[in-house]
Amino acid sequence: MTQSLADMRRDYTRDGLAEAQAPGEPFALFHQWFADAVNTEQLPVEANAMTLATVDADGRPHCRVLLLKALDAHGFTFFTNYESAKGQHLAANPFAAMTFFWPALERQVRIEGRVEKVSAKESDDYYQVRPLGSRLGAWASPQSRVIADRTELEDMVKATQARFSDTQPHCPEHWGGYRLLPERIEFWQGRASRLHDRLNYRLVDGQWVRERLAP
Ligand SMILES: Cc1cc2nc3c(=O)[nH]c(=O)nc-3n(C[C@H](O)[C@H](O)[C@H](O)COP(=O)(O)O)c2cc1C
């Protein structure tokens, strides 16, 4: 007999997040929490996995898991197919939200803001360090389109391998990075009895304002 959903609950007691520990801007805290996640053995290898939400032209939300592949002072970068469903959503509505959940640390980070394409050079630089199979896949797979069966995908991969049999594949125009430029970053630390700590950073006239939110 599986446990009933109503009975599935866990109390969070591992840590707290006090204002005194939180710097005036959120990037340093994200770096610190990300390092904690990478160094926590119980966590899955992909500490950089996050859920990205986009909104389509009809105002309907969609979310999926992606990997964060770069972080700089401007924002959070992931790579994908620009013609995919998410690429079409971002073309129609350039705002998105990403959520990291690190269960072993009882932590969540929520990031929201405008999304822009990274430069072609930045996409190409990352494309070139990917394994060959992934580089060919970026050419072969029309991400998010309906295909007949697995064989169609394998045939597209074979055709791509043949096309690049004696040259190295270059980064396709339909593939590259997006950078989310955060306007809000919220750090959530689970606490006992659901009285969690939530520190929220909001960008106001170019300055980060920090505030505590009720759990
Ligand atoms: C752990 C994990 C990591 C993923 N990383 C990526 C990624 O970095 N880029 C990507 O395009 N899709 C990635 N995917 C696949 C996406 O979840 C999704 O299926 C794909 O991007 C198509 O989404 P869309 O139809 O909403 O555009 C990943 C999936 C999982 C489960």
TrEMBL record:
Binds 1 FMN per subunit. It comes from the Bacteria. It catalyses: pyridoxamine 5'-phosphate + O2 + H2O = pyridoxal 5'-phosphate + H2O2 + NH4(+); pyridoxine 5'-phosphate + O2 = pyridoxal 5'-phosphate + H2O2. InterPro entries: Pyridox_Oxase (IPR000659), Pyridox_Oxase_CS (IPR019740), Pyridox_Oxase_N (IPR011576), Pyridoxamine_oxidase_dimer_C (IPR019576), Split_barrel_FMN-bd (IPR012349). SUPFAM superfamilies: FMN-binding split barrel. Substrate binds at residues 9-12, 69, 126, 130, 134, 194-196. Its cofactor is FMN. Pathway: Cofactor metabolism; pyridoxal 5'-phosphate salvage; pyridoxal 5'-phosphate from pyridoxamine 5'-phosphate: step 1/1; Cofactor metabolism; pyridoxal 5'-phosphate salvage; pyridoxal 5'-phosphate from pyridoxine 5'-phosphate: step 1/1. One of its GO terms (molecular function) is FMN binding. The keyword Flavoprotein applies. Residues 175-215 form the Pyridoxine 5'-phosphate oxidase dimerisation C-terminal domain. Its EC number is 1.4.3.5. It is an enzyme of class 1 (oxidoreductase). One of its GO terms (biological process) is pyridoxine biosynthetic process. HAMAP family: PdxH (MF_01629). Homodimer. Catalyzes the oxidation of either pyridoxine 5'-phosphate (PNP) or pyridoxamine 5'-phosphate (PMP) into pyridoxal 5'-phosphate (PLP). Belongs to the pyridoxamine 5'-phosphate oxidase family. This is Pyridoxine/pyridoxamine 5'-phosphate oxidase. It comes from Pseudomonas mosselii. The lineage of its organism: Bacteria, Pseudomonadati, Pseudomonadota, Gammaproteobacteria, Pseudomonadales.
